[in-house]
Design goal:
There is one protein chain. By secondary structure, the protein is mostly helical. It is built from twelve helices and three strands; from the N terminus they run ααβααββαααααααα. A three-stranded antiparallel beta sheet has the order 1-3-2. The protein starts with a helix and ends with a helix.
């Protein structure tokens, strides 16, 4: 699922612009803003970005377009490019989620995102138990078995891939388009937690069983059980992250 910023970034290459350079500068400036190194009210210029990052004006302009599409900066004639107040940022954008999780404020971000997941995913699991297709129900059961296999083997990369598919499939199959829009955010949270070494080498049996319970409940159309089992998964996450 792409947003406007993704489309701008994918198109940043027309007329000879180097897409890799745009991505590199976007990452650097995005992390600086998300971390507070460039606080709200900070002013940026295309010329300054060109000099600091050694890129063309086109790359600097494309970078600002993406940040503007995320409402992290705004541009005004005779004022320049200004960093927006945090309350105006598009906080559900997966890029911003990744940048905030890469910053010194990551504990605050993990707390916010985990609370959001606790509020949404159990209800999404119940919705999937009501509305998922037969193929989606079967795939969830397959993924739960795969999570058990790779989790017990300590294969973290394979576990991450299956876990992302499991949680995103639940959101996609629940029948609520607002929940579906959170797929990218959830994928970034799961990825960041693994990449930052915040996952145990081998997931606990309780976590693996809870995923199996969610899948079985969805497959059987048991809404209350699906909701309860998903809530258990996220409470385990909150405890493991020390967020209580």
């Amino acid at each position: 699922m792409h947003n406007a910023g993704d489309q701008i970034l994918e198109g940043a290459g027309d007329g000879g612009t180097n897409v890799a350079q745009t991505g590199r500068v976007l990452e650097a400036v995005g992390v600086a803003i998300a971390s507070g190194s460039l606080p709200p009210g900070s002013r940026l210029t295309l010329e300054g970005m060109q000099q600091e990052h050694g890129v063309s004006r086109t790359v600097a302009r494309d970078t600002m377009k993406v940040l503007e599409s995320m409402n992290m900066v705004y541009s005004r004639r005779r004022v320049g490019i200004v960093v927006q107040e945090r309350r105006l940022w598009n906080v559900f954008d997966p890029k911003l989620v990744r940048w905030r999780l890469a910053s010194g404020r990551r504990e605050v971000q993990y707390g916010s995102l985990t609370e959001l997941r606790i509020a949404v995913e159990p209800i999404a699991a119940a919705g999937a138990a009501r509305r998922a297709s037969a193929a989606e129900r079967a795939r969830l059961v397959e993924l739960a078995a795969e999570l058990r296999h790779v989790g017990e083997a300590g294969e973290l990369d394979a576990f991450l891939a299956a876990d992302i598919e499991f949680h995103c499939l639940l959101l996609r199959s629940c029948g609520n388009e607002m929940f579906m829009a959170l797929e990218g955010m959830v994928a970034e949270v799961l990825t960041s937690r693994t990449r930052q070494g915040l996952m145990p080498f081998k997931p606990g049996d309780d976590v693996l069983k809870a995923h199996e319970d969610v899948a079985a409940a969805v497959a059987g159309g048991e809404t209350a059980r699906a909701e309860s089992a998903m809530h258990h998964i996220l409470e385990e996450v909150r405890t493991a992250m020390g967020l209580h």
